[in-house]
Automatic annotation (TrEMBL):
Function statement: Responsible for the deacetylation of lysine residues on the N-terminal part of the core histones (H2A, H2B, H3 and H4). Histone deacetylation gives a tag for epigenetic repression and plays an important role in transcriptional regulation, cell cycle progression and developmental events. Histone deacetylases act via the formation of large multiprotein complexes.
Locations listed in the record: Nucleus
Protein name in UniProt: histone deacetylase
The protein's Enzyme Commission number: 3.5.1.98
One GO MF term: metal ion binding
Pfam families found in the cross-reference section: Hist_deacetyl
Similarity comment: family membership: Belongs to the histone deacetylase family.
InterPro entries: HDAC_I/II, His_deacetylse_dom, His_deacetylse_dom_sf, Ureohydrolase_dom_sf
Record's catalysed reaction(s): N(6)-acetyl-L-lysyl-[histone] + H2O = L-lysyl-[histone] + acetate
Coiled coil: none
Highest classification ranks of the organism: Eukaryota, Viridiplantae, Streptophyta, Embryophyta, Tracheophyta
Cellular component annotations (GO), alphabetically ordered: nucleus
Amino acid sequence: MKPKDRISYFYDGDVGSVYFGPNHPMKPHRLCMTHHLVLAYELHKKMEIYRPHKAYPVELAQFHSADYVEFLHRITPDTQHLYSEELSKRGEFSLEIGEREGKFYSINVPLKDGIDDNSFTRLFKTIITKVVETYQPNAIVLQCGADSLAGDRLGCFNLSIDGHSECVRIVKKFNLPLLVTGGGGYTKENVARCWTVETGVLLESELPNEIPENEYIKYFAPDYSLKIPQGHIENFNSKSYIGSIKIQVLENLRYIQHAPSVQMQEVPPDFYIPDFDEDKQNPDERVDQHTQDKQIQRDDEYYEGDNDNDHNMEDV
């Protein structure tokens, strides 16, 4: 990880503790399991902690129309179907490329059951590289749904965690501002494994395969290992089929005018974050939460700050 890289971590415990029932497809518990693995591997010490506040309507109005903001307040689990009828109408997968002014701005990659690491990562790299070349984005949002992992209760792919995380590594190499989120995944212990490994990829930290002791360790029995291998269900994605998908997607991208080449510039934060000089700080004063959240443990540090050093000196 480059010294100038700024990596922030956000976890909402209120979301992770929601329970919808034993047979409900939503599994927020996987967020708690992931968070505790991140803590167990001490990855949080290498990231800034992000603590956002919930957006107020006036803040949402900066990006959305007033009608849309009002619409959000009317959506509940009981009434959402009233507003999503049009959104649920879908055509053939191959035709999902957008409509009218947005035509060709939606990219769909229809894979069949059983795709493996090699086929998936090669296709992903080819397509995402061309997408970035064509759009020249200022930032990327990468949703890491894990229902493509082998053994998922609802998924039907053969991906290992290594194969899944390789896609994160590919996107990271573009060196663009990157927001990585969770997504689907219904074998929750494997989802937690996957998202922890991918947090390590973003931090360029190789994690031991033996899972450390943590609050959810029993879920990872009997082998307590971090990685899972590829699956062995039949792969219905032939080389010719993969080739045809690649040709079709790349052909669709040809219809989009390339974005002009503009030099990347750092976007200033929405609020002022004052810098501070550690040498000027009063050691007798308590460090505030904001300052603690911004502290990052370097790989070449062998103790956890001055307090840890003082503690060791007292033991001598």
